[in-house]
Amino acid sequence: MRQIAGLRLWAVFALLVTTAIALSGEENSASNALSNRALSQRGINACIEGTDFEKEKYRIIHAAVEDPFKFLYWKSIKARFTAMLDNQLFTYQLRADALSLIENARFTPDSNRNLVVRYERVDVRNCDPNAKALDLIFRIYSTDPPKFLGGATESQHTAETSPQTTAGLTQAESPFHFTPTGGYDRSDGMFGGGRIEVGPQLGKFPLFDTFTAEGQGSYSMRSLSAALSGSANLLGWLKHADWRVDYLNYSAPAGATRLKEGSLSGQIEGETRPFWKSTLLARFGGLLQGGNMQSNLPAGLLPPQTTPNAGYGSLKGYFGLSSRTTHNVFSVSYGLELGSIGPSAQVDWLKHIGDVVDEFWIPIGDHKPLEVESRFTSGGIQVPHSIPLPARFFGGNGEQYFVPGDSWQISDVPVIRAIPANRFYLTGEGAGADRFTSVNLTFSYPVKSRPIVPKDLSTDPELDKVLHTQIVTAASVEQNYYSWKDPHVAVALNELPNLRQLLDALQSAVNVAQAAHPGQLQDEFADCTTNIGTAAFDATNALAAKSSAQYGDLSALLPVDSDDLKSVQDACVEEVNRQWNDPGIKAAAAAVDAARTALWNDFSAIDQKLAAQKAAGDMAFVDRTLNTLFKELNIFSISPVAVFDTAWVGPAKGALGGNRIGPGGGIRLELASYVNFTVGYAWNVSRQPGEGKGALFFSIGVRDLFH
Amino acid sequence: MGSTSGSNPGSGANPPAGSTPPALPIALKVSFTLETPDGLRKVSFGLEKDTDGAKVDWTITFVLYERTSKTASFGDPVVSLNVFVAAALHAKAQAAVDNKGLTPAQTAHATGPAADAAKAAQAGTMPAPVANNIIQNTLK
Question: Domain locations in chain A?
Fold first, then answer.
């Protein structure tokens, strides 16, 4: 039976590889067809600046789009784009219409993101003045990343499997997402399921922005979860907060028993701004959970102080640090669970989890990174009173996490891919370990790959400029916020009511002087009045604004920006009063100038360097993630995988519990936004009686069907 | 292939054999979305360069969104307008595109005085030329 299942599995795998390669080839051919290096077959000619290509009746021989994320929309516009441009007479209107066609497919009118930089350029190339022919290239570089890209290791996984999510280009998609999932494990058999996500706005639930339901099942297991989640980006030391209400129900085989759980939980998590030279960020969270756990293990196999079935409540606290550098992402997490059985508030068990995850990659050749993923996890349980059996540790090649949700994944079981899920659990005291340690290493190197951004684009200085532009502009906005928080801004703002009065007094003096010189210097007078009005407008808005917009209004009065108070002096003193020499204007203008000097002194005392440092720190993780995404990640890759696991469960006694070692190998295929799967086999080289020789591991994620 | 002798230096001369001549840009659109950190105001500040033969035009597209709370949607823009950039500021516009992003002063101006001026012009409390001038000052 196992052989038949294995053969079927390999057949499915072969089919998937074939399909994925075909999909990759389709992407590849589209890319090649549109590469500006392979346009029309005429000779390569320079295009002459100043040529009016419409007036001279040039014809478009070939039109192309260069866009790293063209795969998101190209199929929907390819026919119209080609019909619109190929072999048509060039007109500027046609150029604009084609750009609109691309924009409408590529962008949404009002993105909810806040770091958007669009860069669109239309080039002509390969102009032939004799044949009156040219090639037309539309270059679209735009990303729209969320300002919050999450923790280190989890965000790296998102970038690898769904680059458009990291780049923030999922806005045009349906709010309804469905992603089929599946896999195989000897305990669970072949299982399948899916994930439904509805978001980002849930009108009737203002606290929540996403609903997620996920389920998987096979002939021997089922797992179902449903969650409402929300999040907020914050302005203080806490950068981001998530909250989530989650329902979970599962039933899974575990050797001689079956583990079942139904629970409802509420959790909240926070993430700080980066610190320590912008290389670290801290995360923390809490979860309150209640439900019941069940098992059907014979009493003789139960460890001491363990009950097979119980209603329970638990409180979990967890915190950690994450880091992202150029070629490394790292997270370390600690979690503590205080559990209680029944209605009493006493702590019946305590569970400690430590989890360290690291992923680094060394580029060997263009877009050929040697990746090393490593995970070290350790756990321990203290039982002052009693604990339900499913709360103990059951290891194997199934992954389980300490808290639900994707944003922070803290492993809380011993993972060893050579043993089927939940089958590594027998200890010297019975079923279910009360302590464990596991180390998991995965090495991969792509033998075939295609980058998200083709090499001629990734080395294009324009793309580098756009990426840099985005970060610089976003950091500028952040810097203004930190500057606005500087206490010297408040001091300067306190001077604005007086400035308003002085500007009114100057306007009155100018009015009096003009009445004394009817019909003279009308343009100069109008200019003076306009400039007084503009400065008053700035001061009024600065006082009325409640947010960092105050900073911009204040800046406009001073040399750091348009220096509107200097313009008042130029227009009213230099232009008007140089001729009239009116003492009233002179005195009033001098008072305004003195106020300007005082205001500028306060403004100059703002610690701009500190504000710039904080802003750069805020953007550091986003900057590094985008750089990795555009310059190093592949949209398609096939990689041989080598794995090495070692896991220990206790208390050990003879053949029960102890250490297992599982080397293995397999293959991983990733076609970002379409499918990714890993299949392989790991050997249990230190197996004990009753344990298999090894285990097949297989997992698959298919593209969002509503993408 | 026709001869390109007599073309503009640097752009029209045919390249040496084996090299690829640079593409000639005939349109450029760059836009920056600037959201204030309190999340209540968002400005899309766009710079568009059009080259129709020898003539070059720069246009600012200025779109302002506001909302009363971070949980609400921005919805339709409060103000959306196009401002033709004065020839004297063309070099500044090109610099804003070439300078790898908007400076803190430029973003402060766009989300502060320029946004206020656009609203005032929309409400009729500020003459449009004055508002346009304030919006163009973002480039200074």
Answer: 35-143, 152-176+260-452+633-702, 487-606
